[in-house]
Amino acid sequence: MAPDSPLFSDFDVHPDIVAALAEVGITRTFAIQELTLPLALAGNDLIGQARTGTGKTLGFGIPMLQRVVPPAEGGDGVPQALVVVPTRELCVQVSRDLGAAGAKRGIRVQAIYGGRAFEPQIASLQAGVEVVVGTPGRLLDLAQRGDLILGKVRVLVLDEADEMLDLGFLPDIERVLTMVPDKRQTMLFSATMPGPIVTLSRSFMTQPTHIRAHGNDEGSTVPQTTQFIYRAHNLDKPELLSRVLQSRDRGLVMVFCRTKRTAQKVADDLVERGFAAAAVHGDLGQGAREQALRAFRAGKVDVLVATDVAARGIDVTGVSHVVNYQCPEDEKTYVHRIGRTGRAGSTGVAVTLVDWDDIPRWQLINKALDLPFADPPETYSTSPWVYTDLDVPTTATGRLPRAQRTREGLGAETLEDLGETGKRQKTAGRPSGDHSGPGRDSGPGSRDGALGEEETAPGPRKSRPRQRTRGSGAAAAGAAAAAEPGTATAGGDAPSGAAPATSGEAATAEGSGRPRRRRRGGRGGKGGSTGASTGGEQPTA
Hints:
This protein is of the alpha/beta class. The chain contains 22 helices and 14 strands. The N and C termini lie far apart (129 Å).
C-alpha cells in the first residue's frame, strides 16, 4: 500500500462503512481496491485478479455492503448478497471481515459451511440475514431443503475461483447460478485466472471488465517476501525446521506439508521438542480445525502446521515466516503458500525444503516463476548458512530451551462443540471398549434381547466341554485305561473300565469316524481285559 493511496472516503462509499473500517485501522485502498471500487460501486460485472494478500476481500465486500438494505432501512431478512468460497477456513474469515465492515450499518452476515450442525445455521437464516458466505456443498444442501432462499440475491461473488475449479466445485457453482435471479451483479475474484474460469465467467456474467492489479502478475510472488530454497534430506528436516523456528525476532510461523499424515506427524514432533504447535488438515474435525486457527490467531500457539487447505486466503496478522516442509505440487500452490506472509505490505521470509526426489518438480516451479533458485544448495541442520541466512543463534539445537517456552499451547484454547456430523456416533462407540473384546459379547446380547454379563459369560465355556468330549473325554480316558495291561488286574475291574467307554461312546454316537475307532479299541480292550482276567484265573485254578 502506497502512502499516497486514495482513502475509502474518496470514493462513493457509505460513511458508516468508512467509519467501521477506520475502527479496525483500514483507511487507504490497495491497488486492486482502487481499480475495482469505481466499477463495482456502479453495479458493473467484473473479474478481479491480483496477488494473494492484496485486499481482494474488501474489493468486492465494500460494493456488496453498499448495495445491501439493512433491517433499519427496510430490509426483510432474506439474503440479498451471496459469496461462494472454496474452503471452510476462508468462509469463516470472509464472513468475519464483512461483518466488521458492515457492523455500523447493522448488516447481518452468516457463514454457511459443512462440518457443523444444520440447526444453528438454519436458525440464523430464519432470524434474517443480508449477506451469506458459504461453501458450495452446504449452500446447495440448504437451498434444496428450502431453508436458504436465493431468489432475492442482488450481488453474487465467486472468491478464489481457480481453487474451486481445482477442487471440482464448478458443477455445484453452475447449480447455484440457476437458483439466483438473472438480473444481478456478479463479481469474480482470484489470484490466478485459468482458461476454464474465464470461459465460465463469460457465460454467466454480463460484459465483465477484467481488472489486473500490478499488471499481468499471474503466478507472481509478493516482492516483500524473502525466499530461501534448501536441498534437505528428509531425515534431517525435523532438526533443520527446529533451527528455522528459533530465528531471532520471528513472529508466527506457518509450516506447509503435502499430506495430512505428514502435517500431523510434524506438529506432534514439534510439540515434543518444546514448540507451541498445532495442526490443521482434513482428517481433523471442524471443531479442532477452528480451535487450532483461533489459538494461532490469539498467539497461544505460534507454529501452525497445515496442508494446502490453509494456503488459500487465510489472513493471520503477524506471520513472519512460511516454511514449505515438502515441495509444493506446482507454482500456483507455491505462490499461495508463501502468500501467507508478506501480506498487506509487510515483509516476510519463505523457506522451502526440497528433498532430492523433488528437485525436478522444484525446477519446474522455479522456471515457471522465473526464480534464481534452479540448483538449491545441499543443506543440513549444521550448515553455517542456515544460521546466517535466517539469523539463527549458533547455540540453537533441535529442542526449544525451556526458558523460551512461554506460549500457552493448544490446550489453552477451548474446543467448541459445533454439533459435527457423525461426532455423536463416534463418541458413543468408543466407551464400549475394545473392538475385539466387548464388541463380540455385545453382539449376541443384542440378538437375544438384553442379556447381561452373567448370561453372556457362560457362552464360550459351553463349547469347551464338547471339544474335550470329542478329543479327550471319558471315552478316550476309558479306552486308555482299558488298553493298559496293569489296570485290569481283577475280573471286577474290567466291566467297570468298559462301562464308561460305552457310555462315553453312546454320548458321541453321532460323531465322526474317530469315536468309532475308539469304540473298536474299547471292544478290543474288553476282550483284552477278559483274556487277561481269564489268563489270570487259570494259574489260580
